[in-house]
Input
Amino acid sequence: MLVKIDQPTPELPVPDVEAAQAYYRDRLGFNVAWYNEDGQIGAVSHGDCALFFRKTDGPIAAGTFWVFCADVDAAHDELRERGAPITDPISDKPWGMRQFTVEDPNGHRFYFFHDL
Output
């Protein structure tokens, strides 16, 4: 029997943890989970999805993340209404996914998708 491994929790570098948390709360519908001022680290969550943010100085190496959505069309509509920057609108892709793309102010890219 294999040991059960849960979803990873990525840590995204950001210049301002509290600003990142506010952005994800306001634009993407996440809940602010916690913030540690001494460690300059904090977290947000949305359902089973959790993200950590850590303050970093200097250039940011942006990450790319794929987020499965049971109802990707509803997710698209909700994020659009919240003012999320959708950089690639929802569409059926030739690789067998229905997806759209959101990019945050720090360049981190999220592909929201559902298999066709």
Notes: The chain has one domain: 11-115. Residues 10 and 53 are 8 Å apart (CA to CA). The chain is about 20% helix and 40% strand. The longest helix spans residues 17-28.
